[in-house]
Amino acid sequence: MPVTIEKVPGAEDQVILSMGPQHPSTHGVLRLVLELEGETVIRALVDIGYLHTGFEKSYERLTYSQGITLTDRMDYLAPLSNNLGFCLAVEKLLDLEIPARAQWIRVLLTELTRIQSHLVWLGTHAIDLGAMTVFLYCFREREEILNIFEAVAGQRMMTSYFRIGGLALEPPLGWLKRVESFAKRFPARIDEYEGLLTRNPIWLSRTKDVGKISLEDAIAYGLSGPSLRGSGSDWDLRKKQPYSSYEKFDFDVVSRTEGDVYARYQVRVAEMRQSLRIVNQAMEGLPEGPIKADAPHIVLPDRESMKTSIEGLIYHFKLVTEGFHPPVGEVYQAVESPRGELGYYMVSDGSPRPFRCHVRAPSFANLQALPKLIEGRLIADVVACIGTIDIVLGEVDR
Amino acid sequence: MPHDVEANLALQKLRQAFPEAIEEAQLFRDEVTIYIAAPHFLRVAEFLRDDPALQFSFLADVTALDRYPQEPRFELVYQLLSMTANQRLRLKVRLSGDEPRFPSVVSLWPSANLFECEVFDLFGVVFEGHPFLRRLLMPEKWEGHPLRKDYPTEGYR
């Protein structure tokens, strides 16, 4: 919290500028302290913590199932990716097998989440650089995805739809039709965005060769996700360390070697197309079967059995009042969130509450590279660079 | 997947190069955790980063655990990732609860910068040699370190 750069006595050209936390292009409450010489940034310091909510402390008081609700509120643009990471971590701790149907629905919805999150990124990134129309277009399509989430989970943003052992509910009848109709129209929409930006000279001059970072630096500074793949890496956890049956889907990892803002733009736009491929495959091959694991001591029984059978009632009572006891141990489960490696480090002491649940937030790590991107560049490029690493401050501050 | 922790390549190499540094090695759910003796940590970390067969060049995460009231109270947790070998490794160090201090790894992995600030802020572990250690999430003049186990979750302090 509040940091400053000391003024050098006598240096009259030196200007210290505090950018944020209310600056609209900082995508939340990020504050940067910039040391300027003219319009050139000499040094930059990142100041965060304005949104610190103590989630990690709160986890220690909640049962594992209750903890899911907090995950939505961290990266509020990709709630389902967060749900997934948390559930997978607990399931790994429990060594719990999830039915195929639940896994596929999870994949389908997290890919929709990726598209949705990239749409917000594209819209806000473009509006930061002066392209108003793209913003409106992106939010139009995002709304459709949020409507699908609402149909499935009852919530647009704070979904908490994935549960430990599977899903909260069977999705409603006809939901696949909505996904299908979206998936049919969406490729043309991506062409529309690309038509507005990809060869637009203003866009090119604002993004090409801006915010360059080499692959070595990107790895050293802990960049992950599209920000890393823009620098020439093909590291994607969905391919390299598959989870939730991602190995069964056919998609390409997009990567660019230039390492500038434009490369990262291309990566994310192409990723939306790849996500759509996965969504289509998931719809086609969606297996039938249960959506919850057969583990009555962990998964809540359905209402019917809770009301009509004594076992159901007992399990329900025990799970709601006490929770379940995972074995003593610790796991680290990483998923490829729209922003990069989202890791949940979960330590169990055998009690129904986590001993410690730490979140490796991709935005938090990606933010470290920001000073590297902007030092030596103009103030106007700062805005482009904040957009390009795609941070969500809810996740940075937790 | 090997079910014996000794089959892990990184552990074998460490046993050869720094036999005195390894306190304990565990395997749980196919994840390897190695406890390193604090005085050897920096050398071990550098070795893991630079060894051509291992190349743990990506430090994914640094965090801590508070085992209060046990002693040694703190555990620092480093999550390493080798993109070339597609391997993960967790290093741990035990620290005493009395004025915990530990050398910073920012010189090895610049990505440790904010992670170490966070651990300092929330656990009160001081990282020596860190370029700019500060309260990151809590207000500057905050008293106490919220993620410690003796820090209450509600009410007045």
Brief rundown of the structure:
The complex is a heterodimer of chains A (398) and B (157). Chain A has 398 residues and is α+β, with helices and mostly antiparallel strands.
H and E order of chain B: HEEHEEEEHE
Structural class of chain B: alpha/beta
In terms of quaternary structure, the protein is heterodimer
The major pleated sheet of chain A works out as: 3 strands, antiparallel
Q: What is the name of the CATH class of chain B?
A: Alpha Beta
| Overall geometry of chain A | globular
How is the biggest beta sheet of chain B arranged?
5 strands, mixed
CATH architecture of the largest domain in chain A: Orthogonal Bundle
Number of domains of chain A: 2
CATH topology of the largest domain in chain A, by name, is Cytochrome-c3 Hydrogenase, chain B
Strand order of the largest sheet of chain B: 1-2-5-4-3
Describe the structure.
The complex is a heterodimer of chains A (398) and B (157). Helix content of chain A is 48%, strand content 12%. Chain A is α+β, with helices and mostly antiparallel strands. Chain A has two domains: 81 residues, 2-Layer Sandwich (Enolase-like, domain 1), CATH 3.30.390; 306 residues, Cytochrome-c3 Hydrogenase, chain B (Orthogonal Bundle). Chain A has a three-stranded antiparallel β-sheet. In chain A, a hairpin with a 7-residue loop joins strand 7 and strand 8. The longest helix of chain A has 29 residues. The mean pLDDT of chain B is 87. Chain B starts with 8 loop residues before the first helix and ends in a 29-residue tail after the last strand. In chain B, the strands form two sheets. In chain B, strands 1-2-5-4-3 form a five-stranded mixed β-sheet. Chain B is an alpha/beta fold and 157 residues long. Chain B contains three helices and seven strands. The chains are: A alpha+beta (398), B alpha/beta (157). Chains A and B meet through helix 1, strand 6, strand 7, strand 8 and helix 14 of A and strand 3 and helix 3 of B.
